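Continuing the batch. This is chain 6 of the set; chains 1 through 5 are on the previous pages. Same settings as before, nothing changed between runs. Recording input and output for traceability.
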Amino acid sequence: MATLAYYAPMKTYLVTGAAGFIGYHVAERLLERGDAVVGLDNMNAYYDVKLKEARLARLLSHPNFRFHKLELADRAAIEHLFRDQDFDVVIHLGAQAGVRYSLQNPQAYVDSNITGFTNILEGCRQRKIQHLVFASTSSVYGANTHLPFSEHEDVSHPISFYAATKKANELMAHTYAHLFQLPCTGLRFFTVYGPWGRPDMALFLFTKAILDGKPIDVFNHGKMKRDFTYIDDIVEGVVRVADRPAKAEAKWDSEKPDPATSNAPYRIYNIGNNDPVDLLTFIEAIEDNLGKKAKRNSLPLQAGDVPATYADVSDLARDVGFKPSTPVATGVKRFVTWYRAYYQV
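Output for chain 6:
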């Protein structure tokens, strides 16, 4: 990919969740372009730790990568990390993810997404970090059914606890941007998929089940649309945004407050493919690449789920000159190629 116009060489980045799906890819991209990366991850067993270890091993082979196994909720450890290291930019991708798991274990989301994020904010404030970029999610749109989802619309009606914690992160970041002039940018990711993906996500689950000859669970009887976004597009968006610290919006109107901007150095962006795909079409793409049909178990819509997501990415395209565009057929093919090689099937 082309070098970005606003790239300053050899910055040091803290990437939290570095052994996770998105964190691994972001760290790898930064290392490839010549930056130094300090990775943080707790390596928890939410999904297969061996996959996290394999991602981490690839990063550790790079001389400009250092790793710390830490809990975000461990205040003393995070304070020590920020005191001991000099970071220019923090890309905070570490979190307890998953809509469905938040119904079973909400405390995990409080510990990681609320307490942990507070610790990151405090570290950034104390060390006067140039820019904090943090992961939010399309799930914050919740009960909103107006498509495409726009950052400029209200998101006060989350329908999962996971989404509520991510909305809380956006509010917390805005407070620090306002009080301490800490540049903060939140990124709402839309259904990320691709090589080295998460085993709890649909593409991974479907691929494994189809190859094993087991049925796949098709929720809402297949009447779902998702703005599936390929990992390389997510990474490009994250890195471009990270290179452009948030600034106060001079025309921000407190009489008509815009949720996506502020009179503080704060921004919110969607990163999605801007092209929602039917779930059944997505399944067909997997079947085509595997050369095998799925056995389908038709189920109702799950609690906390929404029937459709669709990202308005006009702000992202305007401000950083990029919008995701990888077709699902291309992305699924790349994932299946990786999956077969990694699991030797």
